[in-house]
Target: tRNA-Thr(GGU) m(6)t(6)A37 methyltransferase TsaA
Amino acid sequence: MEHSAQPAHAAGASAKPGSDLRPHEVTTTLPPEHDAGVWFIGRVHTPWSDRSECPRKGEAADGALCEIRLDPRWQEALAGVAGKAQLQILYWMHLARRDVLRQNPDFGDRSIGTFALRSPLRPNPIASSVVTLERIEGTSLFVRGLDCVDGTPLIDIKPVFCFDEEPKGPSDAHHS
Ligand SMILES: C[S@@+](CC[C@H](N)C(=O)[O-])C[C@H]1O[C@@H](n2cnc3c(N)ncnc32)[C@H](O)[C@@H]1O
Model:
């Protein structure tokens, strides 16, 4: 389904008092309904209680040790994960606004399009990081390389490569 909406220039020099928009940022009107749903499959526990404390980008080599706590209903889906050195983690930036088209990441005198940035402010606030897996205890994965607030919802865990090697041939679209 496609929705059209006119961009709303909601910020600029005259950003409204109390607005969390920065100068030169631009928003749009969100569609009236969602097109799909997601299940949160767990939560990410980190040392950071506020966005301003988080690293801008996680460091897989020497970042803080974080705990990915998976909902136990998905435990069986961890079979095979313990052998992976690195994982790709997808998480839902639940504190981010979703209507911003142009952003001013450094409080400069210009703005950049949302799709040219890895900012959490996006229509579907999905973040991804490649992390180093330190160990698994039950349904908890201890990893380095995250950059999110404590309690951020988890939406997926994937190997960087399924068989720890680059894919060489055409893939089986269902299982690869
Ligand atoms: C720039 S994003 C990068 C996220 C991910 N590594 C990526 O590239 O998709 C990381 C920043 O998002 C912000 N952030 C962290 N957790 C958040 C949350 N739950 N909701 C909204 N913003 C969050 C913090 O300011 C953090 O520094």
Summary: Confidence is low (pLDDT under 50) at residues 11-15. The radius of gyration is 19 Å. The CA atoms of residues 33 and 102 lie 22 Å apart. Residues 51, 54-58, 93-96, 118-120, 127-129, 147-149, 152 surround S-adenosylmethionine (CB under 6 Å).
